[in-house]
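Dear colleague,

Following up on Tuesday's group meeting, I ran the structure prediction for the two-component complex that the binding team flagged. I've pasted the input sequences exactly as they went in, so you can double-check that nothing got truncated or mislabelled along the way. The structure tokens for the whole assembly follow below. Feel free to forward this to whoever is handling the docking comparison.

Inputs:
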Amino acid sequence: NAGVMQNPRHLVRRRGQEARLRCSPMKGHSHVYWYRQLPEEGLKFMVYLQKENIIDESGMPKERFSAEFPKEGPSILRIQQVVRGDSAAYFCASSQQGGAFGANVLTFGAGSRLTVL
Amino acid sequence: AQSVTQLDSQVPVFEEAPVELRCNYSSSVSVYLFWYVQYPNQGLQLLLKYLSGSTLVKGINGFEAEFNKSQTSFHLRKPSVHISDTAEYFCAVPAGGAGSYQLTFGKGTKLSVIP
């Protein structure tokens, strides 16, 4: 069982470029969550997705950020026109169960660390 | 919204000594509580969880935590640490209460075990 796979592990972008972060959930998991960890901060919830549906995006910045989880393939977190403040570690997690309980018991990936120059 | 406070950002401890990592939560309603651990260059993994029932919760790798409603605390303990316990530990609570999708994490406590 490969666990939650995230890539790239490290990504460097210049201001104004686009960043795409990918997440493949654990086998058998159909619920995906993205969290962001800013320096010296705890993880902050961004978005919760199921296949082809965004369930809760209340933690996503209103502009430049989008997420998808297509029927086939990994979940993608996309950041357009990156700024220095987007530099952070982005963690993906998955769960087998949906709903509130399933959302609390998460398996996390190792994270993608974005650096914006 | 619910929140958690981890009182210590770094905790150094000698190998085989006991350790306590502190976590306080803000809530006046029923609550779930979690501890996650992040080893270097790895993702977070669930260490233990409190949902209901016994206030003493046992987790993996010999860790345990005690839910204390009167002190709104959920401190993590281990009687004898090992070098391999060096990691960052996060306390977490559902943001909107027990029925919430979202977890709110503390800022983390870095445990360094000294040989």
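Chain B has a mean pLDDT of 90.

Cheers,
M.
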